Amino acid sequence: MIVSEIDAQTLKQRMDAGEPVELIDIRSEAEVAQGVLPEAQHLPMHLIPMRMHDLPRDKEVILYCRSGARSYQACAFLQQQGVGNVLNLRGGIIDWARHGFDIQAA
Fold first, then answer.
1. Which of 14, 75, 87, 101 is packed most tightly, with the most Cβ within 10 A?
2. Which residue range(s) make up the domain with 78?
3. What is the pLDDT of residues 57-79, one digit of tens each?
């Protein structure tokens, strides 16, 4: 299965343009305490199977983690469950920070 991805620069451009995106941080509580992307919601990876029906269906949902590996797996899982509007942030919050984009306190 091929997971759709978005890179940090494209995501930043879309956010700056005011496009409606739903950012979901799937990292642990300890990781989230170190900072999050602007306007991101926290949904720990282990809760996705129980909460996937709460994800919006009317706009893209972008999942991210530290490096993009866990969020890639979560996107693959959601696609297998019929949720087609999910994207993985390639490189995760590490790549976002590498570009110097804003990280907010949780």
1. 75
2. 5-98
3. 888 999 999 999 999 999 999 99
